[in-house]
């Protein structure tokens, strides 16, 4: 179960090991595991994603990674003719990228078998288990002859992993590792975030003001505008076009051809403004998106993180603007925490709103409770301390055996943490890995939102002795402090 920032390369993180594993297996079996022409496809790896656009993107990226390796990759998704997809599968497939609905259809037609699956990957896993796919995922993984956990390798990836979704996802895993990289569940500091107080009746005028200033070299920069409803997306698209702004909309009621045309037109800059619902908030990697505007704020801070993650990807800078109205008051506390964590300016009026609003409230519908760590910790480690004052330097532990500890003994082990938190006992045993790709700094005043048993991407910066110069060796793995470095 892996958690990492948006735009950090999660697709490559699960594609490369899968491709490598298939090639090693093929060499070990003297090429006898090569996919053969058959009316029934037996893929070795299955990658599931929640949307058609994300499936196509994963297929495109994985095909680049597997170039000239002989590993065959196919994609299956709804909204496109199934006959063409079946003909491609008949020629043999090693890695199948699919949406759950179309995959179930193919399995029921007895054109795909999961009996030989060695690798199962769920991209945007938290969204898939939280948006109504849970029944289909359980059906695919548990009822359709897929090898059980342990016999296959299972990889769950997302930028956010709330505790309740972790509990659901753990049903598909066996003795798994929870890996966290970077500022999990949060946004990179490369994205400049601005929250503006704009009431509903004023939003369109304010949007026009932003678009008029969003010009680079005489051309409109790529701008992604998120709205709450499909009807609202169509209405805003029509209004922008009538106002002289080239815009196009994408949402779930569009047929697949329209959705693909909208993405293609936006990427190429023919229509530099795309109005979208949350169908475009997850996973899509669109180069050179300069500005993300939350015309309507989402009801969940996780969705906000994913939305603004469409800009500032792969080390690039970006700008995200959100219109905050009275109906968004329940989001105030979470937004303040997120902005502070990403070292962004917090408007004074937003601080006042956060103090007067109850955390996690919504206008309607079910919800997850507001979380200060946005699902960036292993829920099995119930005793894992959370720094209420966001001071990272207080994370000092005297034990170094992170790779082999029993979580049943956490209450005894956490006594050495210098925290004022309340600990509760965990009831699972697991192995935790610590990635050594860290940038270690001897900092006594670095602040950060949460303290988790996580890893941070960066570079090595330590003395040849293995200890930080000036360190007393009492920190994690002998270092005084571990601080995130972003994705530079």
UniProtKB/TrEMBL annotation:
The keyword RNA-binding applies. The keyword DNA repair does not apply. The gene is LOC101514624. It is an enzyme of class 3 (hydrolase). The chain holds residues 171 to 658 of 658 of the full protein. Keywords: ATP-binding, Helicase, Hydrolase, Nucleotide-binding, RNA-binding. Its EC number is 3.6.4.13. It catalyses: ATP + H2O = ADP + phosphate + H(+). Residues 355-378 are annotated as: Disordered. It comes from the Eukaryota. Belongs to the DEAD box helicase family. DDX3/DED1 subfamily. GO terms for molecular function: ATP binding; hydrolase activity; RNA binding; RNA helicase activity. Residues 214-354 form the Helicase C-terminal domain. Residues 1-179 form the Helicase ATP-binding domain. This is RNA helicase.
